[in-house]
Sequence to fold (117 residues):
Amino acid sequence: MDILGATLRICVDDLETAVPFYEKLAGGPALRFERGGVSVAAVGCFLLMSGPQSELEVLRKVSATIAVKDVDEAHQVLTDSGAHVLAGPVTTPVGRNLIAMHPDGYVYEYVDRRATE
Fold:
């Protein structure tokens, strides 16, 4: 499985206040989008999320987002290695993802940028 990078997931109370700090830190502008009632800003290796506490509660359970070349391959490697896939693989607006719990109990999102058909 090719791991291409990781994104740190940060839940913030006020996205508008947080984004300028992370833009300066990462040296570039945020890419913003909405997903399921949550406002998101991707800035460098940071994924800032703000929204209803009930939604953020779920999002806080995922430690990081890991970019991989192929989610199907990640699924196979993870299950063969003893991880438990909690959700997915599913298609997203930018590729596919899955959520997996590693044997140590930590939960990660795995994503690829493969074109969906």
Q: What stands out?
A: Residues 15-26 form the longest helix (12 residues).
